[in-house]
Design a protein that fits this description.
The protein is α/β, with parallel strands linked by helices. It has one domain: Spore Coat Polysaccharide Biosynthesis Protein SpsA, Chain A. The protein is 39% helix and 14% strand. The protein contains 12 helices and 9 strands. Helix 3 (120-130) packs antiparallel against helix 6 (213-222). The chain crosses the membrane at residues 31-49. Residues 1-20 are annotated as: Disordered. Keywords: Glycosyltransferase, Membrane, Transferase, Transmembrane, Transmembrane helix. Pfam families: Glyco_transf_34.
């Protein structure tokens, strides 16, 4: 009778490790893990602190001058006498308060075939480069006159308390039924862009921007070639309505104020009519007519503003 032989053991059995050797190996492995973890922590600390690139110092705007008044003139759209009076009007007001003016021609800027009304945007950007320490920039269309020299922009319009009482909150950006509305929780110190509405929508003929990185971003966005290529019916005004409604970053800095605060009209057919003591009067329709139309419209206000400025 034959019995099966037991299986033959391997001729190369694994080496026997004494108990103490196995414990030493485990300890060495644990020490390696601890060392690796420690080095990783040190590297992360070095990466986020010791090797961190120093942030550039925060830009400090001194407020010198406090305000720059910007206007881009279309010489062919209005008479030369009107332009002379409009420039004198802005310079007199600026001199009274230590402001500066940036009065340029719309033709100074390459608009790549876009309507000349777009020139207001690069004109503002140009003024910001020329006066980097100015606190505020007030764009005022050519068809406007400053009527009340006693009112200062930084107090009458842009003061934080004044803004909080004058800004219209939870207002449809484009009347009457836009679902996008001005922020209800916005504080005066958060506002960097102030403008008004008239009976047709946003009015880009008089607006104020607070100097800073956001202002540069906003103007660059507004002047993007893509928006200029859309051929909006009202050019830069409709482009502005578009970006305000679709870019929360811009809406979050916007305050819409009552029209007469910075943008009263000479006639009530398009918006709130000018009243004595208002800071400015605008003639919004005159640039679409003959070059003499703005001169005729402004004549009745000429003695009033010159008297207010002590020029007559």
């Amino acid at each position: 009778m034959h019995f099966a032989y037991p299986p033959r053991k391997s001729s190369n059995p694994p080496p026997f490790l004494p108990r103490s050797s196995r414990i030493s190996t485990l300890r060495r492995n644990r020490l390696k893990l601890v060392a690796i973890a420690g080095l990783s922590i040190i590297f992360l600390l070095w990466l986020f602190s010791g090797n961190k690139t120093k942030a550039s110092p925060k830009r400090v705007i001194t407020g010198t001058p406090p305000v720059v008044i910007v206007t881009a003139f279309e010489e062919k759209a209005v008479g030369s006498e009107f332009i002379r009076n409009a420039k004198s009007n802005r310079r007199e007001y600026a001199n009274m308060h230590g402001y500066k003016t940036h009065l340029v021609s719309s033709g100074d800027y390459d608009l790549n075939g876009s309507p000349l009304s777009w020139a207001k945007v690069p004109a503002m950007r140009h003024a910001m480069a020329k006066y980097p320490n100015a606190r505020f920039f007030w764009y005022l269309d050519q068809n406007s006159l400053i009527m009340n020299p006693s009112l200062k922009v930084e107090d009458y319009v842009m003061g934080a308390r004044k803004l909080e009482t004058s800004m219209i909150k939870d207002l449809p950006v484009v009347p009457p039924d836009s679902i996008i509305k001005t922020f209800s929780h916005l504080k005066g110190d958060d506002v960097s862009f102030v403008l008004t509405q008239d009976k047709e929508g946003l009015s880009a003929g008089s607006f104020i921007i607070r100097n800073g990185d956001w202002a540069e971003f906003f103007l660059d966005t507004w002047f993007d070639p893509l928006y200029r290529s859309y051929n909006f019916q009202k050019a830069e005004t409709h482009a502005l309505e578009h970006i305000v409604q679709w870019h929360p970053t811009i809406l979050s800095k916007l305050a819409i104020v009552p029209q007469r605060l910075i943008n009263a009209y000479s006639k009530s057919s398009q918006g709130e009519q000018y009243k004595e003591e208002d800071i400015v009067v605008r003639f919004p329709g005159c640039v679409t007519g003959s070059p003499s139309e703005c001169e005729e419209e402004a004549k009745r206000f000429l003695p009033q503003w010159q008297k207010a400025f002590g020029l007559s």
